[in-house]
Amino acid sequence: MSTVHLIGAGPGDPGLLTIRAKELIETCDVVVYDYLANKDFLKYARTDAEIIYVGKKGGDHTLPQDQINQLIIAKAKEGKSVARLKGGDPYVFGRGGEEAEELVEAGIPFEVVPGVTAGVAAPAYAGIPVTHRDFTTSVCFITGHEDPTKEETGHNWEVYAKSTSTLVFYMGVKNLPMIAGNLMANGRDPKTPVALVRWGTRCTQQSMVSTLENVAADAEKRKFAAPSIIIVGGVCSLADKLAWFEKKPLLGKGVVVTRAREQASDLADVLKNLGACVYEFPTITVEPLDDYEEVEKAILTLGAVDWLILTSVNGVKHFWNQLAEIGLDTRALGGISVAAIGPATADELKARGVTPDFVPAKYVAEEVVAGLLERGIAGKNVLIPRARVAREVLPEELARAGAHVRVLPVYETRLTQQDPAEIVEALEKGKIHALTFTSSSTVENFFTLLSPETLKQYPDVKIACIGPVTANTLSRFGFTPHIQPEDYTIPGLAAALAQGI
Ligand code: SAH
Fold first, then answer.
1. Where are the domains of the chain?
2. Which mean pLDDT values do the consecutive 10-residue runs of the chain (501 residues) have?
3. Which residues of 335-370 are buried (b: 16+ CB within 10 A; e: fewer)?
4. Fold of 287-415
5. Tell me, which fold does domain 254-283+416-500 have in CATH?
6. Residue ID of nearest Cα to ligand 1 atom 13
7. Measured from the CB, is residue 96 less than 6 Å from ligand 1?
């Protein structure tokens, strides 16, 4: 029999999953998850893991609790290790205690991985510390939705109302008029600050601050719904001063990243840090070549090469992979001068012990050629490892300037078979505010997967592209980019987006 792990998945921000929780998702045979557990975490699961959604949105259960218990017990009895993922902390209004009791009764070993509970995290992301010496000496977690089958209430409204505790209500939005009413009827000052935080810690977070007497009407006006945390107490008056998360420039903005999955994370990470809701829609995949004979030959004759020019991170990776394949390493470059196009390519080289001799300040062919000419490239042997199909401007210009240029394909990009349904649905729902294109091939492939006519139906969606070449390709499809950075880099593109939408 295997162990069941009752795991808190935190309030939603992927960074708030604990290290232990991640380790267990990565290793368990079965992952059972809830509505409030961010499903992004499923990407950590083993490819052969069994993934089971047991839902629970308000009262709308995908699987009733007793069947969830039976399911978990059955899987454990089959000898499978189970990661039971719950939103927030499993023992804070998550019925984790009941699941644990069932496991004990069934004689199944279990472990608990506490999680970051929404009642602390959502206020923190909204600028509200649940305790603060100037306001309160305690904090109280309360359910705003008591078990409807219970005969007598477990609430003591008089105690809540008279206490100086910060009151944190879970599952309370629907009952907000009842909650506020009971607190005031039992003597809490109607002017007491109250805050609501919806989808706390996620890119869709929204919060509002009101007072006990006005909060029910205000929340209705602003259409606050579940899942929200309600905070009652003086600490809510700090929200304005301590707000930070909702100040992120792209918070709540849907941005599509079309780069290959292998290289999307740099752009996606910067965008997420700026608050964006990132939709990954990789239009290309980066693949090794079928045959590396040419590359091998070129490596064995590196002695005749004067300059090596790397134009992309993938170029570096695949070239070095082939060096390793034939038992060589960076030392094979000996006295060769190295140029890197773009800071990311330069970093990739530095990671392999190579400090490039030349990194152009701007990533356009003319500048690169001018810089290399200054460094005496005319008449020299130049090797450019890169994608099978790529722009010819750089090799052609270098050749015209008198260099002996050899282009060496070391990888290729292919069109992915992405289903655009999710993106089209998000466009329809107005959830997408911008699309990003980081190369001509992302543009071409994007429009193979989703027609230009479809995109034209959403004129408010901003189109951001990395530089003039990509912009040119966009114009072939009838689009003019709204956003374009000055420096043609990924961080530049993210910064331009932050200002442009
Ligand atoms: N075990 C969870 C709570 C489950 S009860 C925890 O520790 O956080 C479900 C309630 O939690 C929701 O109705 C809502 O009140 C609250 N909640 C969960 N995630 C939330 C989030 N990201 N933002 C705001 N409230 C959240």
1. 4-116, 120-247, 254-283+416-500, 287-415
2. 93 96 97 87 94 74 83 95 96 93 96 98 98 96 85 90 96 96 96 98 98 98 96 98 97 95 84 96 92 95 95 94 95 94 93 96 82 93 92 90 95 89 96 95 94 96 94 96 91 93 86
3. ebbbbbbbebbbebbeeeebebebbbeebbbeebbe
4. Rossmann fold (3.40.50)
5. Rossmann fold (3.40.50)
6. 171
7. no
